[in-house]
Design a protein that fits this description.
Elements: H1 10-18, H2 26-36, E1 41-44, H3 51-63, E2 80-83, H4 87-100, E3 108-111, H5 117-125, E4 130-133, H6 135-143, E5 154-158, H7 160-163, H8 169-177, E6 184-189, H9 194-200, E7 208-211, E8 222-228, H10 234-244, E9 250-253, H11 257-269, E10 274-277, H12 283-294, E11 300-303, E12 318-321, H13 328-335, E13 345-351, H14 356-366, E14 371-374, E15 407-409, E16 416-418, E17 435-436, E18 441-442, H15 448-453, H16 477-480
Parallel strand pairs: 1-6, 1-7, 2-4, 2-5, 3-4, 5-6, 8-13, 8-14, 9-11, 9-12, 10-11, 12-13
Antiparallel strand pairs: 15-16, 17-18
Helix pairs in contact: 2-3, 3-4, 13-14
Length: 487
């Protein structure tokens, strides 16, 4: 089958030829004719099979009769709204729209949070036929009356399982109320649970369901492995595998933003070029990390699930699950970053004992038993090299162990010093509860000499010393609020 046989216009075929596309993928071959016919669609296909082109190409053809070169914004109303769950996916979809419409006078734009509103307002005011947006920023523009959706006759929910997740329902419902009732609605995703299908029925009218592969199936081109590793040894195991397999590039998925930052810093200290990407990063920072990774300047991209949806890194060979996802469907999205467009890939998961339940849920979902590989050298929970060195003049110190003790203890139990992370680094800052509000200093066990020199009993300040020369007037207002009345 060819793209010509799908009935696409010469302008679209010319753009596809420029991009080197000769034959449609299965999802494109099935979805394009249905969308051109104006039907609602609920489509599921493996990640990396061309879903974006599957809806973008027929949408452009449906908008094409109204395309014009007029400079008047009134001649370019919003005709199609594409919603995505993440900024990165929104940018990627809009880039595809521009690439496929290069020979058509159709205007497109993308709006998402984390960026100034003014440039987006200017683009909207100049006229946009195809708008790609994240729900939150779109509603910001709705509230500011800088966008009108009453002319949009086509709605696309990309990565629909996440878009229709319970957390998005209020935003989606509000947006739907702003759209014409007589519209075409398309839901595309890699995975659909039965609950999501039932929920989607509320938004679709007599939809055509398209599944080119078994629901929640992973690609046969991706080798999947599980490495059984205690949580405390995951970082060392990851570094070992990166070096053992001479991995040129990989995305490493973490469960939390803090975990991603920590792992990225640890990899850099181990001499591995890494960058982190997650929702706490500024948009500029996220784009910089992603662009550097795509350009090959960054070897390891440490990411949360924000990077699992729709990102297309050409010929990415490896994906690691440093933490297994709590939602089994997210595993399919994660490993779908590799093995794309007919290429082979590898998906390795580091699984601690307390993650075995998540692993069973994933295997149940994908109906596949994943091969488990042991790493005997990393089965010990506490590597010997992570011992803390004792401080000068102090007693012995305890070993860094699986208990994750945050302080080294030396001499008296009441004498604490913030520990340093293994391999160096700054000590933790003193906590507020460890501060003496009368002195503004870290509390410490007083020596007999200090008590005597200050001419007062050591118990005068509940057994702690006060730095000489400090007055209550010097204490910051926040701490003064906690001071007790003098006795």
């Amino acid at each position: 089958m060819s793209f010509e046989s799908l009935g696409l216009s010469p302008e679209l075929l010319r753009a596809l030829l420029d991009m080197g596309y000769e034959e449609p993928t299965p999802i494109q071959a099935q979805a394009i004719p249905v969308i051109l016919g104006g039907r609602d669609v609920l489509a599921a296909a493996q990640t990396g099979t061309g879903k974006t082109a599957g809806f973008t190409l027929p949408i452009l053809q449906r908008v094409q009769p109204n395309a014009n070169t007029s400079p008047s914004p009134a001649r370019h109303p919003i005709r199609c709204l594409i919603l995505t769950p993440t900024r990165e996916l929104a940018v990627q979809v809009e880039e595809s729209v521009k690439s496929y419409s290069k020979y058509l006078p159709i205007r497109s734009s993308v709006i998402y949070g984390g960026m100034p509103m003014d440039p987006q307002v200017k683009a909207l005011q100049s006229g946009v036929e195809i708008l790609v947006a994240t729900p939150g920023r779109l509603l910001d523009h709705v509230n500011n009356k800088t966008v009108r959706l009453g002319t949009a006759s086509i709605l696309v929910l990309d990565e629909a399982d996440r878009m229709l997740d319970m957390g998005f329902i209020p935003d989606i419902k509000r947006i739907l109320q702003l759209l014409p009732a007589d519209r075409q609605t398309l839901l595309f995703s890699a995975t659909f649970s039965n609950e999501i299908k039932r929920l989607a029925d509320d938004f679709l009218t007599n939809p055509v369901t398209i599944e080119v592969a078994r629901s929640n199936q992973t690609s046969e081109l991706v080798e999947q492995r599980v490495y059984s590793v205690p949580d405390a040894r995951k970082k060392d195991a990851l570094v070992h595998l990166i070096r053992e397999f001479a991995i040129p590039q990989a995305i490493v998925f973490c469960g939390t933003k803090q975990g991603a930052n920590k792992l990225c810093s640890q990899l850099i200290r181990d001499g591995i070029n890494a960058a982190a990407i997650h929702s706490d990063k500024t948009q500029q920072g996220r784009e910089e990390s992603l662009n550097n990774f795509k350009a090959g300047e960054v070897k390891i991209l440490v990411a949360t699930d924000i990077a699992a949806r729709g990102l297309d890194v050409e010929d990415l060979p490896y994906v690691f699950n440093y933490d297994l996802p709590h939602v089994a469907e997210d595993y399919v999205h994660r490993i779908g970053r590799t093995g794309r467009a007919g290429s082979t890939g590898h998906a390795f998961s580091l699984v601690a004992p307390d993650e075995e339940r998540n692993l069973r849920e994933i295997e149940k979902l994908i109906k596949t038993k994943i091969n488990v590989v042991e790493l005997p050298q990393f089965q010990s929970a506490s590597p010997e090299r992570e011992k803390f060195a004792p401080r000068s003049g102090s007693g012995s110190v305890s070993n860094a162990s699986a208990s994750n003790t945050r302080f080294e203890r030396a001499g008296s139990d009441s004498e604490r010093a913030p520990r340093k992370e293994a391999g160096g680094g700054r000590p933790h800052r003193p906590r507020l509860e460890d501060m003496d509000p009368m002195a503004g200093v870290v509390l410490s066990e007083p020596s007999a000499m200090e008590s005597k020199s200050q001419g007062q009993d050591a118990s005068a300040h509940s057994g702690f010393s006060q730095r000489p020369g400090r007055r209550a007037a010097e204490v910051p207002a926040l701490l003064r609020g906690f001071m007790k009345a003098p006795t």
